[in-house]
Predict the 3D structure of the following.
Amino acid sequence: MNHNYLIPANSKKSMLILGFFTPIDLVIFGVGCLFTLVMLFVFNSSVDLSMMILILAPALISAFLVMPVPNYHNVLQLITNIVTFLMGRKRYYWRGWCIKDEK
């Protein structure tokens, strides 16, 4: 074997729906599209471009949040990691296993 190890590159990808989505991603996208469909039925179809962009905004925003990006699951996970890093602990205390740390 010569100490050669085979590690799958995307071992967690098989746990995702269609290889890209978690159930919460599909819920976010579904709610955004459903809300957009309701708004399309409620408002008149002869509205101007700015109103049509506002009507389509929920679907566009939800699609942006569940869009896959490299090195992260999707944009929602990237935003979650950024917020966790910025709002998390900024000062770290050493608690090692070094013999000098024991009393």
Summary: The first helix runs from residue 23 to 42. The chain has a mean pLDDT of 81. Helices lie at 23-42, 49-65, 75-87. The CA atoms of residues 24 and 38 lie 21 Å apart.
